[in-house]
Amino acid sequence: MKKSMGKGRVVSAVLIKDLRIEARSRVVTNQVLPFAGLIMIMFAFALDNDDVLQRVAGGLIWLATIFSLFVIVQRSFAIDTVDAALDSLRVAGIDLSAVFLGKAIALTLQLMALDVVLIASAFLLYQVQVSAVGLVLLVTCVTCATTGLGFVGTLYGGLTAGTNGRETLLPLLLLPVVAPVLIAATRATEAAFGSGGAATSEGWAWVGLLTIFAAVFGIGGSLAFGPLIDE
Amino acid sequence: MTSEKVVDFNDVVIVYDDFPAVAGATFCVDAGEIILLQGPNGAGKTTLLRACAGLLQIARGSANVLGCDLQTDRAAVRSRVGLLGHANGLFQDLTVSENMSFWSRLVGANKIDIDQAIDAMGLSGRLSETPVAKLSAGQRRRCALASLIVRRAQLWLLDEPHAGLDAQGRDELDRTLRAARDSGATVIFASHEIERAQSLATRCLLVTSGTVMPV
Prior knowledge:
The structure holds two protein chains of two kinds.
Chain A: H1 7-25, H2 27-47, H3 50-81, H4 85-91, H5 96-126, H6 132-160, H7 166-193, H8 203-230
Helix pairs in contact in A: 1-5, 2-3, 2-5, 3-5, 3-6, 3-7, 5-6, 5-8, 6-7, 6-8, 7-8
Chain B: E1 5-16, E2 19-30, E3 34-38, H1 45-52, E4 60-65, E5 68-69, H2 74-78, E6 81-84, H3 96-107, H4 111-120, H5 137-149, E7 155-159, H6 167-182, E8 186-190, H7 194-200, E9 203-208, E10 211-214
Parallel strand pairs in B: 3-8, 3-9, 6-7, 7-8
Antiparallel strand pairs in B: 1-2, 1-4, 4-5, 9-10
Helix pairs in contact in B: 3-4, 4-5, 5-6
């Protein structure tokens, strides 16, 4: 058998595969995005107060992101398990940490695209405002938070991929774990928007927490994903 | 273990959900053989094939595949075997050629290998650009076999490889397996189509209640 390819090329192969499948099936575009958008609209109806909406916009964006994360993660692993392609990946003799990274990056990119739409809808529906410095904080926050969610989502998606009742098990396991991301990303986003008189500088400490979260689950996931999939 | 023995199982027990799916299997397979595993449903054929692929933990006994101890070094076996199970291991939203490209990239195969495999399985032309989800069951099976061909595995493990194939596809599969054997590979396959399978196999093993016996 020919020599197996390097880790970097496995990462890119898995990344391209996942994005190509999304581009063709349009599940995120046609189902997840409208779902997340509806969450934002429903909250706008429910709260029906511009001041309150501006105050809680950050939290609503990240709640909608996390609810959407469950759907995207389940979709991401459904394409690998529906015809036992995950088994084929195991037998391919490749480094499964590369599969983890490829899937996590694909998930992160999809979440980033989702957040761009959610933030745009917050500007439109909740009339939030952001300064130039706040925009830098917001972009950094979205990058760090979605990267962390990408890693942790992929790890827990792999953990539940072969289990019965994974549709309900995944949110149950994942919600407590992503609570720090929800809190930190919400605080950082509020600082970026200046919600409730928050200063932009207050957000950077929360971005630091998001970075640590992403690093921990990036490293931990790379180490744990292979054995988890194997069992 | 001698260099000719590709598979060497000695009193192997594999437990699956507290049930011994393989209960003391002892058998050897030499290089270049085409082995047919026959036996009733639930006898342990699939479990044996998955164990040979390094996917299952051995609970007891000794098991060597391609010189690697399955108790301690299952990962080393995987890059050298090709497994086709009941499922095809394909991505439904990708076309045949995209699936082939993906699996080929993972094992370092080139475009010539891909084209040859697609041709060998009769999937060239329009079919190669068709999403797998829109193919018939037989065409999906051919696609899975084509992705197995490009791996150039030393040990081919196939579970009901003829299932879903038409007469022409079955003939092509038999030719492919003989060609693999001729190029130095070893083949172990399970089949319920005894007449065709026996004509393909160089040796048959009977699997019953998790044990293996020569036919």
